[in-house]
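pasting TRAF-interacting protein with FHA domain-containing protein B for the record, 206 residues
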Amino acid sequence: MERPLTVLQVALHHPTQGPAAFAKVPPKLQLDTSPLLLGRGQDAHLRLMVSRLSRQHLSLEPYREQGSSLLSFSLRVLSRQGCVWVNGLMLRFLEQVPLGAVNRVAFAGVQMAICIEWGISLEAFVCCVHLSPSPLIYRLKAEETDDHDEIPPQQQPPPGGSGEQTSGSLGFLQDPSPTQDSALQPSPGGGTEIQPRREPPEEALC
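structre below
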């Protein structure tokens, strides 16, 4: 009896290079429980033609939590350059974070949305890749930065304001309104369908 596989629905967007950045990315691939590598190198499962990427930039790593019958996933940063934003959290080299059902990731100008559709197989999973013509992540203000250390001094929080977010960080990874959040929506037949947004605002993340 066939055991349904967990599916990672991955949407990719680059504001300047467009589909050319993802020309070498396969639309679908199946892996065992080894990490899925994303980067610029030939050994990457998802090979992105973006000069600012490392050969191995990040990995999506399946694991099984104790007492769970499903595969869970974490994102680990493999690049020593810059940083990776995951759901508004900044990660650096070798840091990792568990993924939820829907995740927004930004790195080196690339925007990525990851939706997990859980299956019952613990031996393998599938990754399906979609290219989005519209931005996947929206911000309220400030410029994106891949290097937290390069934020201009005027954007640093005032003394004593450690609890405030800086205007130069991606802590504002959120959608302006529910009506514009159409990148990841339930499909009529179940699961999740990735669709481009309508009328993205001018402040879409670069």
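The radius of gyration is 17 Å.
The chain has a mean pLDDT of 77.
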